[in-house]
Amino acid sequence: MSAPRVTVPRSLDEALAALAGAAPETLLLAGGTDLMVEFESGRTAPRDVVSLWRLDELRGVRDEGGGLRMGALTTCADLLGSDLARARADVLVDAAAEVGAVQIQNRATVGGNLGTASPAADLNPVLLALGATVRLRSASGSRDLPVEEFLTGYRATARRPDELIESIAIPARPAGERRRFRKVGTRRAQSISKVVVALAATLADGRFTAVRAAAGSVAPTAVLLPSLAAELVGQPPDEARLDAAARRAARDDAAPIDDVRSTAAYRRLVLQRVLRTELGALAAGA
Amino acid sequence: MAARDNHGTGAPWDDAFRVVGQPLRKVDGLAKATGQALYADDVQLPGMLHAKILRSPHAHARIVSIDASAALALPGVHAVITGADLPIRYGVIPWTPDENALAVDKVRFVGDEVAAVAAVDEDTANAALDAIEVEYEPLHAFLDPREALATPEPQIHADIRGKPVRGNVSKHVELEFGDVEAALAGADLVLEGEYSFHGSTHAPIEPHCAVAQVSADGLLTLWSSTQITHYVHRALAQVLELAPERIRVIQPCLGGAFGGKSDPFALEFCVALLAQRTGRPVKMLWTREEVFYAHRGRHPMQMQYRCGAKSNGRITGVDARILIDGGSYSSFGLVTTYYSGQLLTGPYDFPSYRFDSTRVFTNKPPCGPKRGHGSVQPRFAFEVQFDEVAERLGIDPIEIRRVNFQGDDTQTVNGQRITSNGFLRCLDLVEEASGWKQRRGQLPYGRGLGVAGSMYISGTNYPVYPNDMPQAGIQLKLDRSGVVTVFTGGNDIGQGSNTVVRSIVAEELGVAYDHVRVVAADTDLCPVDLGAYSSRITFMVGNATIDACRKLRHQIVTALAEAWEVDPRRIRLMEGRAFDVEDPDRTVPTREAFQVAEARFDTLGSTGSYNTPQLGGDYRGGTIGASPAYSFTAHVVEVDVDVETGIVRVPAAWCAHDCGRALNPTLVAGQIEGSTYMGLAEALLEEHGVNRFGLHRGPSLLDYRMPTSLDVGDIHAMIVESVDPEGPYGAKEAGEGPLHGSIPALANAIHDAIGVRLRHLPFTPGTVLRALRDQGGKGEGAAVGSTAAATSKREAR
Amino acid sequence: MTERRVEEERRGFSRRAFLQGAGGVAAASSLTEAVHAAQDPASEVQRMRGPEEVELRVNGGTLPATVEPRTTLLDALRHRVDPPLTGTKLVCGEGACGACTVLVDGRPMYACMLLAADVVGREIRTVEGLADGDGLSPVQEAFCEKDGLMCGFCTPGFLMSATGLLERKPDADAEEVRRALSGNFCRCGTQPHIFEAVAEAGRRLREGGR
Asked: With a cut of 0.85, is the ipTM above it?
């Protein structure tokens, strides 16, 4: 056994240089709120770690085309303190308020949520529902990926070993878009979610014109719920329609498991119920 | 001998207490608020090595061989020990020594300790653990107590103390008082039900830690996060085969225990032996995960209750059958088995009562005493069934508890002596404060109120190991400076027992509160006290403290009276001064009074002690659970059930507790709040269990979900003072009793809220949703858990 | 999925495999020495495996500490500065309980989840830095007065979270107090007293305490 290697770059360029030619299993450490748990338990025993925490270039929230661009190291607390984030991505801020507790919010980052791709990462369903894109950066350039293409499976992403997440963009809010966020956890803080739901939808002339929904903790990673759109777009928000949509999404779009935090049956049932409740609230204009 | 002298229950000087009853600060509050308080892991000694333990990955297996040579060869490794080095068995209960510090021949649960390493640092010690080769021959593992009961082979323990174990039965107790069958036959209503209580654990914030050092003259000093210094001292002597005079055990500041630190643990023996072997100080700090495996928490119990009642609500008889899942070792299990039956016979009058309790061994982390040891589970079952009796008979649940009140100065059906009993007052208070009469049954669907009552012991007269010496001792030393130093073996585990001792001394000797220093839980310095368990410290150490103070007080008063040439009855010691009550101008600071007394009587000091009177029923086991005084509690819990997700919240709980006299009302309130908090937490959020391989299902504080400050509702603590004739100034316990009723009151509140009787803990969101589904709209009598299952469980016995 | 779950269920004990454990000044660790010998000198400049001398800004002063890049701030405070700052407690090691809460540039964070190397240059405050020459801070004073502590092991963490809140918002309401303290576990169930203490401390701060 030999001690692992840790790189603490002081600038983005240093970080990119460190990643050029990095071993595939090299881990990127941001706020550490997920990875440090893995390290403590020994579930993850990296040989190579690059700690990004000191890269202030990757912090901050700014306007981009009427939407929002967030540096990868933007923390939940940064979001909570940002009027711009509140105005442009209200449900993301709502989700940030439900992450862990204050100490976690001061460390958990938007990029870290995506990078570890935990199925229970609370921000990811919101990013999916809001149509966010991930900007990946390497020494050789950068590329943008929609979140749903970035998250590829259980703790798996499309990031190449030489890349890091530079920033995340949320497009401008479509006119009239209504949004909902809901987290179900057993305790009210420091809770690993049982079910997370994020919804974004527009209605015109009494019919859904667009629906984008996502859920967390009900599949190997955060997932879109395409059935909702399939059931609802072009339809009026009547009770039976909302019932059917929630039922179908919970049945077809989720693949929950039994674990120590909950059972698959509970997750599927509660996903359906929460979707139904939130759709109702959304349709009612709440 | 050494039974409590009758000091009365009043104030020592005139009518009013000066210190007792005041909400005074904790002795150690300042140290704790500045980070200066020294806990075991804060002990850092020069040259100190770090130790780690290798644990069994099997739930049940024979150890074929252990090869530690590669570990020993690692640079930085100083010693490796295995079961062969510590072959002597121990156990906190001397009748059931079935533990080895490190496994000998076999392992009995995932996590059982197999070997220990001392190295220059934790990383090296961990690397050494990886290098130890252990060959196991796996055996069938029992994870289900019913299977363990029904299946005698393979045995988890073949014999204990030379006596063969019957199958996998750890302890069986069957006792009947009166004719239960006749009583049930004569009842207007007999309810029968099946209940279960899951495992939960203490999860003290401080993980277990021990540090050992051996001095040049061979004295072994152990600093340990224990709540039973004295028993650790005895166990070390026994297992290390070391003369007790060569061992000193010190409990530094302790970061919570709740019963989880009341056994001798492997780490204490290991650091001691490793320190002996290496000649260097050795520390072992358990990880949070290891604390979960060390456990000794709440026993899972499967309980069948029958309760007969007359149409006026009066109980005619209660019959209980209890299967107790003990986990892999005995721990306090003998006592647990008795407590599961013996402590139910109040605050209600049971004309007849029978219990049949069987504790079995299983290949899981050993269970032991968690706050409310042994009686929390039966209390849950009975109070839920009792609530249903009230419902069936159309009697208000608080009223039926009044109707059955046993009274004070009486005896229970199983021969326990009840002295003071403030239970009716407790009921009145929670009824009033919760708005019971206006709100129960009137709240909107999903919200409800429930009630429960309970009793608990203030220590017992069963001293764990039989002896005629006092259960609690105190030593006082008076200094010319005016300082009084108190030496107590009592373990302050955060409950504030040192503060209680300080208050009593300040009251008795009239010295300023901060002129009393308390030296505690150091076996070299302090007289023996048996430790912080069974809610005994305030009661027993308190009485011993008064005893010691009265002796000194007599000397001081006598000396001063002689000097002033007045009748000693005119002397008062109060608030830092001594004075003549008939001539208040004649006064000196207590410091000078001490000096007068020292001149008259020589160096001043005294001892005091407490032992219980002879108590308990005249039958085998009759003394177990026999307490010199019982506390009584009533809870009302309010719930808010989210029927969409099944999540149950408790916005408010009211707990009225009869603690005899509140020596420090702030501390008592803290115990009431803390107990209620802990009960609600284990009922709603927490579960200590293993998966099909015997591994803990979530040995971390992320998955073992203790409540956060957003989950804790408003807990209203109310104190009832019945002034017990046996307690110090009339005080009784407050640290465990106020847990019991919180759980059944919660269950009963859920019934009020959504019409479902939950009989099986924990009340997880999934359980609640399932219960609602099974209920299918019909409210009454729809228990969760089918009768078919109940029948098969009975047959399995 | 299923295979992963079975594997997860069978997984044995946790053992830190990355973060540094307690004990042994880094230089004394045989492991670290062994690593040095094996290390590639070419990568020495940028990537470190062995111990490094850093300066931590703690409680208004500067403390030298020998840390490895994998040393947590908690470990550095408790074991690798002189004198050791043991007021900050190790309880869960995984950012759940809050007993290791410190303020980093005024914000409460879990010291067990921070690498010491990541906070070089940041202003760190621990429980030892709350009281000054004039005595206890208003938060400490209120915790003592309202009996906001029992066993005391969680207390330093609660004090830091409360301080972090009140210095930013002395008029925090009851809900904000609960929220700010929700990352700190108290197993003694002292919460009612803690809430009272924080409310009292806020009052004192507003009335011009320190």
From this structure: yes
